[in-house]
Amino acid sequence: MTMYSDDEIDLIVSNPVLHRANDREYAEKMRKQNEDSGVIYIDTLLDTGLTDDFWICDMCNDQINVVDEQGESISVYLWLQTRALCGNCIDKYEEQGYLNEGKMFCPCCIGKEKV
Ligand SMILES: [Zn+2]
Ligand SMILES: [Zn+2]
Fold it and tell me: Which domain holds residue 84?
């Protein structure tokens, strides 16, 4: 098995809705800690009314479907572990050789998808 450094790994989010919920939980925890120390900040996860199933491609701003008609999770590809890509952009960047060979499943929501 080849070892990759962090910037050579793309992340596959198996269950985007659960992933977002986990993210928000973390953001809430951070906010609580910050409030205790008197820091106030705006967090997009907490302050924009973003729903957990609303994902946008970070490259072309198209909405990404994360749930199919049966309510099953559709995984989301995170380029460099931070930029969500829609199907078109995955194809485009894959073709141009930008996507990383190293890929891993997000540990926060791995195995929670139905295959
Ligand atoms: Zn896109
Ligand atoms: Zn996750």
Answer: 6-105
- For the record, the structure tokens of 80 come out as 């460099």
Ligand nearest 11 Cα, by number?
2
Distance between CA 48 and CA 45 in Å, rounded? 6
What are the residues whose beta carbon lies below 5 Å from ligand 2 (ion)? 19, 106, 108-109
Q: How many residues are recorded in the chain?
A: 115
Is residue 111 assigned to a domain?
A: no
pLDDT of residue 82: 92
Residue 115 lies in a domain: no
Tokens 């924009």 sit at which residue?
48
Per-residue pLDDT of 65-98, as tens digits, reads 999 999 999 999 999 999 999 999 999 999 999 9
Q: Is residue 62 part of a domain?
A: yes
